[in-house]
Amino acid sequence: GGTQTALPAVRDGFSPQQIDLGRHLFFDPLLSGDHTLACASCHQPEKGFADGLAVSVGANGALGTRSAPTLWNSAFLTRLFWDARSSSLEDQAQGPLYAPNEMNNTPVQLLSDLNANAVYRDLFQQAYGDKGPIQLAQIYRALSAFQSSLISLNSRYDQYAHGNHEALSTKEVAGLNVFRSFVARCAECHQPPLFTNNQIAVIGTPEPEGMAFDIGAEKTFSSAKLKGGFKVPTLRNIAKTAPYMHSGAFETLREATEFYNKGRGHAVPEGVEMNLHWHIWEPDLGEDELDLIVAFMQTLTDETNTPRMPINLPSGLALPLATPVSRDLKEIVATQ
Fold first, then answer.
1. What is the largest CA-CA distance in the chain?
2. CA spacing 20 to 30 A to 163: which of 34, 70, 106, 206?
3. Would you place residue 334 in the very low, low, confident or very high pLDDT band (cuts 50, 70, 90)?
4. Is 74 helix (H, G, I), strand (E, B) or coil?
5. Taking a C-beta distance cutoff of 8 angstroms, is the pair 156, 299 a contact?
């Protein structure tokens, strides 16, 4: 429960040219099959590199199955996606690019579009020193380089943890103490400084009305004990990434926090056997204590390293528009 713990190894070794190439690729709709979606469509800087929706909307208005996770501090993670099915940023990049309900591209089209663009050929040459055709591995590495640059470790909490005790208010310090207490146990999974332990947890989160039960990491690891299990998300910039949980089940931080106080297994569907994490119990926190935890989590915001959006994209396409403001899943479904 301490305020200072060690950081895990970080992905590093990328050149500035590779990071900047990845930045242009990240914001460019050229990477999608119909040239209307970019990585930034679902990972918007102003929304904590999420998209403000319960589940993301992909190509041709196709509805995704899970909420877009933040990309902040992904350089430190060894498991990616909610179901932890990927172990590297390069592997993770390929999922959204080629998924029919996301960017709906193909490797053949992706290479064709990029190799046909003189600006991108020059940027790839600068990044890799290779005058040959653009390769898929170079694309994945550039996107990984950009994501690895999204470091968030200078919030007001961090300033407090490093000795500036004026950085947090009395209420926020009280919230920190509840957060890391052996009653609330928040910090046992959301461990500082990343505020995730990078592990899978089965907590019995409800699915929104109309959505089928998601078995999560059970499929990834072919393990029944992980039914309904998902990767513990970071709480960094959590105030920016509503709605919450893998399916956007909770609209506010207060609702998400209250879920843990309502009793072990209270939202598990009837007839579903789940091996709930032992940290999920009945802490019986008061309303004021829940408010204190929320107040503390709001101190974890740090967007110092938010990248600049490109003024002009190499493709000449327009920067993708922000997704709809609505977070109501039923409203999104109704438009399908």
1. 64
2. 70
3. very low
4. helix
5. yes
